[in-house]
Fold this protein.
Amino acid sequence: MNFSHLSVTVPIKVEMGDTLGEVLVWPLVEQALQAVSAQEITFDAARKALLSSHGCAALANYLEVEGESVHKMDYSYKAPLLVLAAQHAEDDDGADVILDDADRMLFLETDDYLFAFSVIKNWQVDWALVADEVTTEYEADTDMEKVWALDHLLEYAEVVIDSYRRPDDDL
């Protein structure tokens, strides 16, 4: 697959205009990976993750967690990547996409994980069109997903956790 041509159309709220048009996903993801000083194996995992809803969610989660330590992180990858995750979810049935409209959070529930993303800063995106379900009282505990963000992503590169963890790391 040619990842440099992978694109999505991000729906924009009616009052904001039409759409952002076709947005290329990989260049934005690649820029974010570079910003967080990701290793080459992480780039490989990211490419493979882009092929599924769960993978896109794991990648977005990883970039969000790692981006917290980058001064002036560019989160322009976030909306296109989450829209791609939702599109894949329609096809692969790998995640349920839920918007908590009151808290402006987008949740991607997979069989094994729950990923949560604040979409407050992406206020112009029509997240209701992206989501399978819209609610105002979604309750979820997603703290553990952030702790294991790299582990989730590296699953796509088929890396065994023990090969990169120190023996004294607490699992």
